[in-house]
Design brief:
The chain has 287 residues and is α/β, with parallel strands linked by helices. The protein has helices at 41-52, 65-72, 105-117, 139-147, 177-186, 213-224, 241-246, 258-262, 275-286; strands spanning 8-11, 25-28, 31-36, 56-59, 81-83, 88-91, 96-100, 121-127, 132-135, 151-154, 164-171, 192-196, 203-208, 231-234, 249-252, 266-267.
């Protein structure tokens, strides 16, 4: 028996567990290596202590499985992870998906209908494996494709493989309200979630209802038989707010966004200083 038996700690990766503010890969003479940025030693030691005392630790991220597996081999991850920004619960070691909340074939057809109806709209689909497929790419998409091996151009949304994690719609000529209203009119059962993801309202996101980090953390806790009264989450960005507010207590590095500060998360030290270690220190005091 350890003091953290029945306690679950879930952490975002980028700019929470590790500092990716300068990119996800280690810089080497201004180039890149295949090595992802390292976990701060203070975080690693704290997580080893937490799990040795019976705590369950895992990761919740939008990163592809291969990146999550990289970190799981270097820190004591001992619970299934939340992947695809809340689209799935995954056994990180084996790569097996245990639960999913993804977009179906009908959603892909609706995305293609948007492309056919709105000739200046760009649509990007993200596969659950982390690959981005963009139809009618705009300047933003072409920039991403020029620097990332995980971003491809597609001639039709129908050629993008399933399962799809998210669809993003962008349009230079309108605020996308027409696109949103069109999709809402086709979704009579309310099975999809639509939300603008930029202050300029020039990007619209489509996701399966019930996906999101908060929803999947709840489902993970239920799967593990852990009460939400003993679930803690750490994250730095807007996409982390749902799990930070679902948890008994959310933790955030000092480099977090304003929306994270506003949601009631406990702000600890910076990601570079080892924010997860500060979170474990607080839990150590509370338990």
């Amino acid at each position: 028996m350890g003091k953290f038996d029945g306690v679950l700690l879930v952490s975002d990766i980028c700019d929470t567990l590790v500092d990716t503010s300068r990119g996800a890969f280690v810089d080497e003479e201004k180039g890149k290596t295949e090595e992802l940025v390292p976990v701060p030693e203070r975080n690693r030691q704290a997580l080893e202590y937490f799990t040795a005392e019976g705590g369950r630790f895992t990761l919740a991220t939008g990163r592809a499985l291969k990146y999550v597996q990289f970190y799981a081999d270097r820190i004591p991850v001992n619970a299934p992870g939340v992947l695809g920004d809340g689209s799935a619960i995954c056994d990180i070691r084996s790569g097996a998906y245990l639960e999913t909340a993804v977009l179906d074939r009908r959603a892909r057809e609706l995305g293609q209908a948007v492309l056919d109806r709105f000739p200046e709209t760009t649509v990007t689909a993200r596969h659950l494996d982390g690959m981005y497929h963009t139809v009618r790419p705009d300047a933003r998409a072409r920039l991403i494709m020029s620097v990332s091996d995980d971003a491809l151009e597609a001639s039709s949304l129908r050629e993008v493989p399933l399962p799809i994690q998210r669809l993003w719609f962008r349009d230079r000529s309108r605020t996308l309200r027409e696109v949103r209203d069109f999709l809402r009119g086709q979704d009579e059962d309310g099975v999809y979630e639509l939300a603008f993801t930029s202050e300029e309202r020039n990007q619209l996101q489509m996701a399966a209802r019930g996906s999101g980090k908060g929803s999947m953390v709840r489902r993970l806790a239920e799967r593990l038989g852990i009460s939400m009264e003993h679930v803690y989450c750490a994250g730095n960005g807007d996409d982390d707010v749902s799990m930070l507010t679902a948890a008994k207590q959310g933790f955030a590095p000092s480099n977090c966004t304003q929306s994270v500060r506003d949601c009631g998360a406990a702000v600890v030290c910076s990601v570079q200083e080892g924010a997860l270690a500060d979170a474990v220190r607080i839990l150590d005091r509370n338990y």
